[in-house]
Amino acid sequence: xxxxxxxxxxxxxxxxxxxxxxxxxxxxxxxxxxxxxxxxxxxxxxxxxxxx
Length: 52
Fold this sequence. Notes:
By secondary structure, this protein is mainly alpha-helical. It is 42% helix and 0% strand.
């Protein structure tokens, strides 16, 4: 899902910034916003958990 990829890319980019140790990404205005937000902000993410 494209929205999940964008959200994940944003979070990974933030975490690459020196001094940033954690980040929370919130998606709004998308029909799967809550689902994507929940997935991208999990600590451990496996491929099988991505889209259920």
